[in-house]
Amino acid sequence: MSDQQVLQKLEQYYDAVPRLSARAEDFGPLTLFVRDDGGHPYYARPTPGRPEPVTVEQVEAVRARQRELGIPESFEWVAETTPGLKAAVAESGLQIEECPLLVLTAEPTLVPETTARILEADSPALSSAIAVQHLAFATAGTAPGAAGFAELAEEIAKVAAADEIARAQGRLRSQATVFAAVIEQEVAVSAGQHNPVGNVTEIVGVGTLPVARRRGFGAAVTAALAEEARSRGVETIFLSAADEDVARIYGRLGFRRVGTAMIVG
How far, in Å, CA of 218 to CA of 198, rounded? Predict the structure, then answer.
């Protein structure tokens, strides 16, 4: 497939995934996804089949609805697919993060030294896999940080109290999500997931405990998720990298850039 065909396939995926657990509110060329199950809030995205330009007034209307609902003023789109949206979002005063969008297309040149394991719904490591993702994204970047096993234990307790484990178990049992993790000292020190819909899946949430960074754990998790996805017949495996440095690592795992993911919130 050409890059444009791949991006159109990803657009269909982007629209389908939130509909599995959220309702869609129509704002013309934008769709706001709103979930009522207590899970992580979704975002607004371009509406498929609506090629007209998005105006700043339409962006402001979505933001007003998000404030009314008490959810983040969050937008996501692909620059190459909806090129005019950047100007409207920027004019509304929001800060935009631009992330390399990559698709798995080649054999890896990097073979991780560590092996990540796929987690079942009843895995004792599931709570720490969720918790380590929280800690990883609370400390941005890839440099080693201070958060370690003590902080991980505290975060595991918060995850249990928030009932995140039960939601994750439900998604695992329904095969809506697949978790992979690197385990040390009986807890996950790096984890991530992929969310298959049909023959497309996105690898998301790959993060490592800050004190355990730069040991190849994130690459191991990504490789395990890609292998699992391929084993179930998934044809298109993609992800968004945090920055160009991270994108280069994914490139060594066989991923190739096809576009730019635009993220607000």
Answer: 25
CA–CA gap between residue 36 and residue 108 (Å, rounded): 40
Distance CA 4, CA 160 (A): 42
207-236 pLDDT tens trace: 999 999 999 999 999 999 999 999 999 999
Q: Which CATH number is 117-257's, of 3.40.630.30, 2.60.120.590, 3.40.50.300, 3.40.1380.20?
A: 3.40.630.30
CA distances from 53 to 11, 28, 47, 58, 130 (A): 17, 10, 11, 10, 38
What pLDDT does 141 receive?
84
The CA-based angle 38-26-99, given to 5 degrees, is 70
pLDDT, one tens digit per residue, over 235-263 is 999 999 999 999 999 999 999 999 999 99
Full-model pTM = 0.95
Per-domain residue ranges of the chain: 3-95, 117-257
Give the helix, strand, coil percentages of the chain, each rounded to 5. 40, 25, 35
pLDDT in tens, 14-52: 999 999 999 999 999 999 999 988 788 999 999 998 989
C-alpha torsion 195→89→41→101, nearest 10: 20
Q: Contact at 8 Å (CB) between 69 and 36?
A: no
Residue showing tokens 């044809």: 235
Residue 182 has pLDDT above 80, yes or no: yes
